[in-house]
TrEMBL record, chain A:
Coiled coil: none annotated. This is Carbohydrate ABC transporter permease. It holds the Pfam family BPD_transp_1. The lineage of its organism: Bacteria, Bacillati, Actinomycetota, Actinomycetes, Propionibacteriales. It comes from Kribbella sindirgiensis. Residues 66-255 form the ABC transmembrane type-1 domain. PANTHER family: ABC TRANSPORTER PERMEASE PROTEIN MG189-RELATED (PTHR43744:SF12), ABC TRANSPORTER PERMEASE PROTEIN MG189-RELATED-RELATED (PTHR43744).
From TrEMBL, chain B:
It is a multi-pass membrane protein. The lineage of its organism: Bacteria, Bacillati, Actinomycetota, Actinomycetes, Propionibacteriales. Pfam families: BPD_transp_1. The keyword Cell membrane applies. The chain crosses the membrane at residues 28-52, 89-110, 122-143, 171-195, 216-238, 281-300. This is Sugar ABC transporter permease. GO terms for cellular component: plasma membrane. It is found in: Cell membrane. Gene3D superfamilies: MetI-like. Its main location: membrane. The keyword Cytoplasm does not apply.
Length: 270, 307
């Protein structure tokens, strides 16, 4: 018989500790109001009640917030893939005047903390008439220096010979990028997609500043205000919380390898 | 985010293939200009604008008025800013070392091939992808003094009920604990990746020389992981000094201002009391502090890497 490792005694309780708050999130979202609002509160539901979900989905704003978050994240991910790969490819492969200076400047902006730029960014967006629209959330997240940098690093590591035949046949740079380089760039594409999605879907600070009307809220902002207004209806608040977390959680569980590689890469490339 | 700035490799073959080198400048600029415009436009312009604002009085609506160093002078004397700084430092001093040490310990524990190891890893990582807003809402409920499960458990164990976020003596430490729950996973991910790079031959050699488990850890694994550790210290410190979302969702800086951290202070001054110039001065103070810390750690990191 195979010997069972003693490490389970350490790892199993640890894993439970990390998982417990999320288990409780799920459990409390299916409790009835009566059960959740009694003192001391029940630790486990006697029956699964979907009151919370019914309330949240019956509230016309919640689906709207979900859609808003989805639009912002989807546009941001697409734009970062397109603009990031274009820029990254040019910085990796094309020699042009000023490229090193511009790349250096762009990378230097990564050390600028958000609080330093948030007031002027607000004023810029106000000038552009974008405050209180999804545009204010989309424009600043269209492309990040990290996306350009990650693509550049990946393209630099690809053997140049792959492109040479097409180049000799007279293909343009764009054609080479789209039909030869990008199909090989799945790791870079998924890393940029994952990091952009996490950053935009989970953001609260900027939507809090840029958005005033509740019909333009993102899920994070909506959930936060919803909690403020319904703090006695905990099952509804937790149902809303599950809906907010679910896309990220599902993404993580389905594409765990891509998520972990992406997150680790932010740490090891430095 | 500062992490990635380090060194980047230059492709030694970075030249156009023979014959068609000319005319590439236009293509290059066409490819990079959208990114350059957006990134530099939304960073260089605001950074300079913020600097101007910090010498002005501005309410985000009417034209601003030049006041010189008045904002910075007021900031130094403002007891609210002083306590925001000290709350941020307490939070950082607890969160950073604890998350890094726990991350290392858990990564070492997870770095083995046993049954369920994939499941264990998933469960440890998963809180990291949960947004600060969702964490805040969840723990506001768990720690609700009346309806929360935490007090319910204490009650079952025969322990006295706690005030949690309504207790000025507890709130800041609870924020540290919640951040540890969600943020340690990141350190684990990075350390696990780093552990794959620790030479197994070195470990083997140390074993043969008679080193025990601790000896290997102290003399082989930890030195090999030093660059990773320094990166994590830098990354976690920068994040901790900028904590905001979780505070906004759970305590709004209270009770009695006990969890007002620097970024909350900055946000409040800009978008609640509409004293944007004063807020910009606070933001600049924090940014300079971050730059100094980041610079010092980068230099230290180069030195370790060169060794």
């Amino acid at each position: 018989m195979k010997r069972i490792s003693g490490w389970h005694l350490v790892l199993a309780p640890l894993a439970v500790l990390f998982a417990l708050p999320l288990v409780w999130l799920l459990v409390s979202s299916v409790m009835s109001n009566a059960e959740i609002n009694r003192f001391p509160p029940a630790l486990w539901p006697h029956a699964i009640k979907l009151d919370g979900y019914r309330y949240v989905l019956g509230n016309a704003l919640f689906p709207r917030w979900f859609l808003n978050s989805f639009i912002v994240s989807a546009v941001a991910v697409t734009a970062n893939l397109v603009l990031g790969s274009l820029g990254g490819y040019a910085f990796a492969r094309i020699r042009f005047a000023g490229s090193k200076l511009v790349l250096g400047l762009m990378l230097a902006t990564m050390v600028i903390p958000f609080q330093l730029t948030m007031i002027p960014t607000f004023l810029v967006m106000k000038q552009l008439g974008l405050i209180d629209t999804l545009g204010a959330l989309i424009v600043p997240s269209l492309v990040t220096p990290l996306s350009v940098f990650l693509f550049r690093q990946f393209f630099v590591s690809l053997p140049r010979e792959l492109e040479e035949a097409a180049w000799i046949d007279g293909c343009g740079r764009l054609r080479i990028l789209v039909s030869i380089v990008l199909p090989l760039a799945r790791p870079a594409l998924s890393t940029v997609a994952v990091l952009t999605f996490l950053a935009t879907w989970n953001d609260l600070t900027w939507p809090l500043i840029a958005i005033n009307s509740d019909s333009t809220y993102t899920l994070q902002l909506g959930l936060t205000t919803f909690q403020g207004q319904h703090h006695t209806q905990w099952s509804a608040v937790m149902a809303g919380n599950v809906i907010t977390v679910l896309p990220v959680l599902l993404g993580f569980l389905l594409a765990q390898k891509a998520f972990i590689r992406s997150l680790a890469s932010t740490g090891l490339k430095g | 985010m500062a992490s990635v700035v380090g060194t980047f490799t230059v492709d030694p073959r970075s030249r156009a293939p023979k014959g068609r080198a000319r005319g590439e400048g236009a293509t290059g600029w066409a490819f990079v200009s959208p990114s350059v415009l957006i990134i530099l436009g939304l960073s260089v312009v605001p950074v300079l604008w913020s600097l101007l604002l910090s010498f002005q009085v501005n309410d985000l609506v009417s034209p601003s008025e030049w006041v010189g160093l008045a904002n910075y002078k007021a900031l130094v004397k403002d007891p609210a800013f002083g306590s925001a700084v000290s709350h941020t430092l307490i939070y950082t001093a607890l969160y950073v070392p604890l998350s890094v040490v726990a991350g290392l310990g858990i990564a070492i524990a997870l770095d083995r091939k046993i049954a369920f190891i994939g499941l264990y890893r998933t469960l440890v990582f998963v809180p990291f992808v949960v947004s600060a807003a969702a964490q805040g809402v969840l723990f506001s409920f768990v720690l609700d003094p009346e309806f929360g499960v935490a007090n319910s458990l204490l009650h079952k164990l025969g322990l006295p009920a706690q005030g949690f976020f309504s207790d000025p003596g507890q709130a800041l430490y609870l924020l540290v604990a919640i951040s540890l729950w969600s943020g340690t996973g990141f350190c684990v991910i990075v350390y696990l990746a780093g552990l794959q790079g620790v030479s197994s031959e070195l470990v083997e050699a140390a074993r043969i020389d008679g080193a025990g488990r601790w000896g290997v850890l102290r003399h082989v694994t930890l030195p090999a992981l030093a660059p990773v550790t320094i990166f994590l210290l830098l990354f976690q410190t920068i994040n901790a000094l900028q904590v905001f979302d979780l505070v906004f969702v759970t305590t709004k800086g209270g009770p009695l201002g006990s969890t007002t951290v620097i970024v909350y202070f900055i946000w409040e001054k800009a978008f609640k009391t509409f004293t944007a110039g004063y807020s910009a001065a606070a933001a600049y103070t924090l940014a300079v502090a971050l730059l100094v810390i980041g610079g010092a750690l980068q230099i230290y990191r180069r030195r370790v890497a060169a060794r």
